[in-house]
Structures are given as structure tokens and as C-alpha cells.
């Protein structure tokens, strides 16, 4: 009888939705880079970088006499406390301060191969390779809702695609880093088109591994069987 129940339980696990399977929502918010494991910062094409004391994001371009220079952002999230499989993931950014003559601006998220130690090294001079890495490669998500007409605290949501989910799951128990770039720039226009803010959060929906879920159900069925015999 117990064996039959275990087989039925295994079939049930396969058919469960994330919610039914006991999915957990994990929210990781960036903070002071000196003490928080979750942080963000920026690099620009002139090889400058953001403050080591604040987690901020900055994107876009700024004018100079020789034409605009570009700014890109990185995000770092510590996944050492995450256990299970991530079935959905979202990056939440505040709309922030948007300077633009366009009604909306588009931002995309990309994979990053630059070592985290290089991104956080404030004694090193950023290179073209580091800057380029923050806005090229495998695209994880896009949002086209950033607007200068919106309040700064309006939340913009990036839903990670399958490449993003695979990258996150590959970093479970480790550290996940990715970049962001404004995609709607016109380099011919030497104008101040920027997005900047401080609030960023990675929201994960995590389900337990099938083996762990099956073990828990097995224990419950076994306990029920013992009670029935008693």
C-alpha cells in the first residue's frame, strides 16, 4: 500500500505547478557595497566608474565636445542562500531620474563574463573590454517603459528569459552578475539621454528539488502509514 502511495506521490510531483509544489519567493535588494552582498555600479566609455559607497545604476549617454560617451551598469546578487530551482526571475528597477526628449527609453540586460573582482576593483582603470561586456552578449530581458514623464519611484520590471533563468540556475549557491545598457540611444545626437536610480531588486521564484520534495512526501506517507497501523 505504501509503495503504491509513493508511486502516486511521484506522479503528483511531476504534475504540480510551482505554487502547488511549495514555491518560495526570494527577494534580493542591493545595498551599501561595503557591507551588502547585493550591489550595483556603473562604468562608462571614458573609463570612469561609480562610487564604492553607493549601489546605483546609471545608463545612457552624456554629451561632450567630441561627441557623446556611454554609461552602462552591472548588478551583483549573492545566491549562496538560494536552494532549489529558479522557475522565474524578475529584476525590479525604479524608473529613476530620466533625462530624455523621447517619450520612452529601452533598457536591456546582458550576460557578463568579466570577473566580479575586476568590476569591484577601484584601484584598477576600467577597460574597453569591461565596458563592452556590460552591454553585449546574451540578452536576458528588455524593458521599454522608462519615461521622463513618470515618477522616479515607479517600478519597471524585467522578466528574465530562458537564457537568464539558465544563467541564474547555473549560479545557485554562488554569485550572479549581469549588465544593463540603454538600447534606444542615438549616437548621432550629442545629447544628455540618461537613466539613473538607486533601487534594484532581484525577485526569484524557487521550487524545491524533486528529490527533496519526494523525500518530504515519503516521510509524510510513512508517518501516516505508521499511524494507521497503530
UniProtKB/TrEMBL annotation:
Transmembrane ranges? 210-226
Keyword annotations of the record: Membrane, Signal, Transmembrane, Transmembrane helix
Residues annotated as signal peptide: 1-23
Q: Which domain of life is it from?
A: Bacteria
Q: What is this protein called?
A: PEP-CTERM protein-sorting domain-containing protein
Amino acid at each position: 500500500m505504501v509503495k503504491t502511495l509513493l508511486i502516486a506521490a511521484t506522479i503528483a510531483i511531476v504534475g504540480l505547478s510551482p505554487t502547488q509544489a511549495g514555491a518560495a519567493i526570494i527577494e534580493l535588494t542591493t545595498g551599501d557595497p561595503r557591507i551588502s552582498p547585493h550591489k550595483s555600479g556603473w562604468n562608462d566609455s571614458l573609463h570612469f566608474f561609480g562610487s564604492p559607497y553607493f549601489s546605483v545604476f546609471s545608463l545612457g549617454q552624456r554629451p561632450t565636445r567630441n561627441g557623446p560617451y556611454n554609461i552602462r551598469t552591472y548588478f551583483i546578487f549573492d545566491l549562496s542562500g538560494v536552494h532549489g530551482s529558479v522557475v522565474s526571475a524578475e529584476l525590479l528597477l525604479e524608473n529613476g531620474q530620466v533625462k530624455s526628449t523621447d517619450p520612452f527609453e529601452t533598457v536591456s540586460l546582458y550576460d557578463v563574463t568579466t570577473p566580479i573582482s575586476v568590476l569591484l576593483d577601484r584601484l584598477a582603470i576600467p577597460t574597453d573590454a569591461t565596458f563592452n561586456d556590460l552591454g553585449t552578449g546574451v540578452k536576458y530581458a528588455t524593458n521599454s517603459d522608462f519615461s521622463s514623464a513618470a515618477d522616479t519611484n515607479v517600478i519597471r520590471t524585467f522578466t528574465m528569459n530562458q537564457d537568464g533563468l539558465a544563467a541564474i540556475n547555473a549560479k545557485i549557491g554562488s554569485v550572479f552578475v549581469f549588465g544593463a545598457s540603454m538600447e534606444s540611444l542615438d549616437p548621432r545626437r550629442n545629447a544628455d539621454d540618461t537613466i539613473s536610480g538607486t533601487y534594484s531588486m532581484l525577485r526569484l521564484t524557487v521550487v524545491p528539488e524533486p528529490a527533496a520534495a519526494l523525500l518530504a512526501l515519503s516521510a509524510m506517507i510513512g508517518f501516516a502509514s505508521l499511524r494507521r497501523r497503530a
